[in-house]
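PT: before anyone asks, these are the final sequences, not the draft ones from last week. 664 residues across everything. Please model them as a single complex and drop the result in this thread when it's through.
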Amino acid sequence: MDRENQLVARTARAIPSRAGGLLRLGIGDDAAILRPKRGIDWVLTCDAFLEGIHFLANLHPADSVGYKALARATSDLAAMGATPRLFLLTLAIPSSRTGAWLDGFLRGMARAAREFGLRLAGGDTTRCARTLASITVMGEIRAGKAIQRTGARAGDFIYVSGKLGRAQLGLELVRLGKGRDRRLAEFLRPHLYPQIQIELGEWLARRGIPSAMMDISDGLSTDLARLCLASQVGARIDAGRLPCVRIPEQIARRLPRRAHDPLRLALHGGDDYVLLFTVPPKKVKLLRRAPGFRHFARIGVITRDRHIVLVHQPGRAEILRPLGWDPFRQSS
Amino acid sequence: MDRENQLVARTARAIPSRAGGLLRLGIGDDAAILRPKRGIDWVLTCDAFLEGIHFLANLHPADSVGYKALARATSDLAAMGATPRLFLLTLAIPSSRTGAWLDGFLRGMARAAREFGLRLAGGDTTRCARTLASITVMGEIRAGKAIQRTGARAGDFIYVSGKLGRAQLGLELVRLGKGRDRRLAEFLRPHLYPQIQIELGEWLARRGIPSAMMDISDGLSTDLARLCLASQVGARIDAGRLPCVRIPEQIARRLPRRAHDPLRLALHGGDDYVLLFTVPPKKVKLLRRAPGFRHFARIGVITRDRHIVLVHQPGRAEILRPLGWDPFRQSS
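LR: through. Structure below.
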């Protein structure tokens, strides 16, 4: 269990949090599920977006910070198949950023809200030496249709809905100070303005196709480990099937060594916000009509034992450790 | 309009936030109101609690930080008359605080959750150089019964539900490093573990007695200005009727000059979380059965012109400026 997971478990033990009544699903999945009336579930989740942790104030454009803060939170709704409705924004900023920077931030967030179909319902604004945004987002879904992390069973196939490692590649370029270089827009976009797979999540949930689903925000190795832990299963991943990025030579030249390896980016890179889901073999045929199906990759299979094994080629395999983004791995 | 209010208005203009449909009341009041089904409104609000802004890590006990972070958010529900149900917690802490400090924090928050009848529905945990908590809290109320800030009319009487300035006095003691001094518990408690007036809020809203209501979190002068602005009215406050604290001589001796004046503490001190509400004359009689009525003070009357006037004695009056807590007044 990674350290973030341990903290969540400790919090849930300390504070009254048992599901029941109005609260259909409590702490531990992508989002909580409430049932305000028969036939409808509300899906509710919150997410922090912090300067120095999730973005770098000097390197990330203000409108990307606003866009991404909302995208990140909304992706947890997509991961359950819910339709986004409303959000609340807690925003703390230094006085020095209440001018043009804030305009850019709000512009990016407004664009994300329109794209995702979200309305701002309320918020809290305060001052802080470092910028931070915390967002609570609420979505709606037909009662009982939300896809949780807990349903994966041995034999289910494992899919991802798009390329892995693109956002990490963009981050490496931002770290080089290229975050505003228009010639690199194609490589920066997945990191600065990630696509959120709302439509796909809704489509999959409506048909009840996935046995388990979540979004990849912290990297495949870390998020797949969470899905497997929640479902009490393991997985075998075929390295050759991972939908890796292609890195053009003229880009690779500029990058630090750690970013040269597309497989490593695909396994451990964060922020892609593609959907990771498992499908029982008998439902695989239904998948073909999914929006964006041609971008899907079937990357492996769920297994009974609890390990996650990465198979490079027949006879060459290794245990896949969760080496994606874990905020508590570095000390502070 | 204070700077925090200006920021809220700017945010509401930039991001889609118009009320309508599910969203009955949008940004700008104590909380948003949603109507999930006929007969029931849900009240939703979020609140930040930040190290260095709302608490001082070296001076405030960890369990007070946890208690107060939740109390502060929940007070906005009480201010509308709603019954607290669920909350979500975004928590960012330095790695160095994941041990005993976090245990204390969770213990305080758990106690608050039990007292307020709240269950933790979900959250997000991450690392940050400084501790921050952002809380979204959800409450329930009979449809249309929530009391907003907008309904005060000229001639309505103005009430506060308890003493003013007690929390500020506690803060001054904490700043002197006395936050853990058990002999001062009585003076520290209002600041460290504020009472939230949930029962009173429910009682008042159920009977539709107040024409407008909010909680005093940033000081009477600042919060009354907000209520008046929202209702497009003014007020006349009788200084002699303000329920000020009495400061014993042995405490006063230790305090800095600014904290010696009970009137000043009552006007501008923050964090008291008493309710501030206006009542039409014909409903005043109904008030007498309110829980805690003997602690109420009728401090003035709503007026037609837009100023807030503080009357010291017949013939001696001044315009009351909002000099309570405004996070953007100091620079950072």
